[in-house]
Fold this sequence. Notes:
This protein has 225 residues and is mainly α.
Amino acid sequence: xxxxxxxxxxxxxxxxxxxxxxxxxxxxxxxxxxxxxxxxxxxxxxxxxxxxxxxxxxxxxxxxxxxxxxxxxxxxxxxxxxxxxxxxxxxxxxxxxxxxxxxxxxxxxxxxxxxxxxxxxxxxxxxxxxxxxxxxxxxxxxxxxxxxxxxxxxxxxxxxxxxxxxxxxxxxxxxxxxxxxxxxxxxxxxxxxxxxxxxxxxxxxxxxxxxxxxxxxxxxxxxxx
Length: 225
């Protein structure tokens, strides 16, 4: 039901907020990552990975990468323990009610960094009901169901609960989309070069094009064009 979908959505985001609020130093996790220069490393690293995996049947994303370099924010004044692959697929709901989150899985990419980058990465997977048919075609989670919060409301909820000022979330969402495109392109490159034969990867080039198109749309809207 819509009320249940809304509650599980809020529980998902509130669990991420709880993660970001942990005192990682007190937990002995201060050496897990280096928050200084985190955004620079992420932008530069994912741009390099995309370029190395690029194939001539997907967008080059040159303007998109330039925009990310130009608009990258300063280091977060409030670095946090971040998951880096936070989504419905990587949490465990309580089987008793299906709404309470009782576990977070797949910690291999966790580090200390900018929590807004973590939220932006999560929202890259968040295809809402009003998104284009192309986005619906690449949707991997039930985030379009009645009751699920739209991305803008998730960002407002996160800001309200954390007290963080978010004058604009465009950079973090665009980066999340581009990072996901780079991940998908790396898989597509492996399929194109015969390193994997899984037939479902054949359509991943289209997936990359859709993500790049959505990111470009966010940039154009932000610029008022």
